[in-house]
Amino acid sequence: MPDVISQDGSIRQDDWIVVPRPAEGESLDIPAQSKALIPADLWLAGYEHFTGRDDIGVWFDSHDEPEMLVGKFQELPVIAVNFPKFSDGRGYSIARLLRERFGYQNELRAIGDVLLDQLQFMKRCGFDAYVLRPDKDINKAARCLNFFSQGYQAATDTDLPLFRRRAS
């Protein structure tokens, strides 16, 4: 299993398995005895079966709308957002919606094509765990998460832009 980086830069073993979307006509295959992240729409479709389980989380693809789970977010121990390619920024918007509009407070992780130079921006949008692309050096992650001491804009980590913080 890959490692996961926490917001504080610590590295830990990832005990969540991302279950891919099944092909048309196939059923969802959740490995036994493991924590699984399943597609959000399939979790919702099987809500009665999955509700209350702390070993099942969801993942959103970049084109998914998080509104589909309104009222159910806090039931999920982990929500992952897939970045299918580094140039697809929709995952940043999903993270901000989950944190700011829907008040999600549990672990929010970035998966997929996650690169070191994106970590600082992901952190500011509300992600608190990151699974790097396999060819990236995980030992450089802590430095990348804290590369800048201050952000100019308001984000999930501060509700005031820098010029307002300096004025007070």
How would you sum up this structure in a few lines?
The protein is an alpha/beta fold. 24% of the residues lie in helices and 20% in strands. The longest helix is centred in the middle third of the chain and has 12 residues, at 90-101.
Strand content: 15-25%
For the record, give the distance between the C-alpha atoms at the N and C termini, rounded to a whole number.
46 Å
Principal-axes geometry comes out as: globular
Average pLDDT metric: 88
Main-sheet strand order equals 2-1-8-7-6-5-4-3
Low-confidence stretches: none
Helix/strand order, N-terminal first? EEEEHHEEHEHEHH
3D structure, described in words:
The mean pLDDT is 88. This protein has an eight-stranded mixed sheet. It contains six helices and eight strands. It has helices spanning 40-45, 47-50, 90-101, 119-125, 141-145, 162-167; strands spanning 3-6, 11-13, 16-18, 35-39, 56-60, 78-83, 107-112, 129-130. It has 168 residues and is an alpha/beta fold.
